[in-house]
Amino acid sequence: MIVQVRKKKAFLISQFLGVLLILSIIFIQEGFSYYFSFQTLALILLLGISIYYLQSIKIKRYFFIVFPTFIFFIVISANLSSEVISRGSSNIFLTSMGILFYAAIMMILPQLKLRKEPAVLYMIKSVSSKTIWLIFGSLVVSETGLFAAFNREAFFEKNYRLITNYTNAEAIATHERLNFLLGESPRVCLFYGEPSFLAIVIFACVGSYLVASKTQYLLRDLGTYKKLESILNVQKIILIISIFCLLYIKSLSSILYAFVIIYYCFFKGILANIKLWKSILFLSFIVVIFIMFSYEYLFHRLTLEEDLSLIQRFGFLYDVSFSDLMFGIKNVSKIPVVGIQNGLFYIVAISGFGGILFLISFFSPALKLASKIQLSGFITLLMLAIIMQNGGVFSPNKLVLFMLVLLPLACTRAIASNNHNVADMGRY
């Protein structure tokens, strides 16, 4: 009796924490301040899950070479060119320590060995799938305009309150007047401030869901897959609504993410083993959705003579020399006024060769784990997308997205010990 009560309490607590994590991801850009916010709550919850289920940390030898090298380059940049690390920082020491803290977690995450993998996979899969459903539901409600406080205009007006905002109420009011004169409406962003961040959250949740699902399948989690066909049908629905949301958002990055999901999850997975007429029906549906919501925007972006977003993310590379890539950027004049809007290049800019080693040591173990579930290419693109998304790469919100993917990936370590054959994963 006592055991049953304890199990019930544990179940209720896990459900409560799951709901809390879902809400934290939905409102990850909201908060009273940068650290007193939902992004911090989500990070604390995921770190708590990691610590609770932690069995061991298999730190590789190269960590003791790579991380000190990364620290060395960060210290040099902090002393010689602190504005490269952060233009607006009032305390460069604390900023540098924060970078090293997040970098250490990022390097350790792929090295984790967890216990009770089925419980971890169930929780992460549940959180990611329900987050996708909530985003889809929010998108439907906001686009119908049923509630005045829950539509595009209302979300756009609240952007200045976001903890990582780069605007203010006056700028938003000016932009609204311009939209009115041009007959345009604000872009879809929901609670995230910009379409591309909404897109990367969906993309990360899809990646988390896929990794958890495939790992569950290989571990044959407690009979979960006795009804495999129904599981596959649910998975198809979640992937389809994710693709719909990404195409509807009308962001260049969201369209690219949708194409990645279609290729890796359908052409190399589910669609590879279903009947031809079903494949044609699905592809026809995707083409119709693409033409209705994304074709005009994509054509516009691809035919622009000057794409501001691309210039912000890649333009400064024209001024970067080989020595900058090796030793980090020391000439502040090479940094755009708005800062480096590409996390991948930011890492190299502040730490040079140390940053390159950091990226290699971060990606390599994660991709090795992903190869066990035949998702190496997908995980590579997903991790690059998270890093290259606007905003600081060493930040709570980015770390939350990484953990959503890397925690279920850590569970794939159990696959080798159980000697499961991956040859039958073609349809999954």
TrEMBL record:
Keywords: Membrane, Transmembrane, Transmembrane helix. The keyword Glycoprotein does not apply. It comes from the Bacteria. The keyword Membrane applies. The chain crosses the membrane at residues 12-28, 34-54, 61-80, 92-110, 131-150, 190-211, 231-249, 255-273, 280-298, 344-363, 369-387, 399-416. This is O-antigen polymerase. It comes from Legionella impletisoli. The lineage of its organism: Bacteria, Pseudomonadati, Pseudomonadota, Gammaproteobacteria, Legionellales.
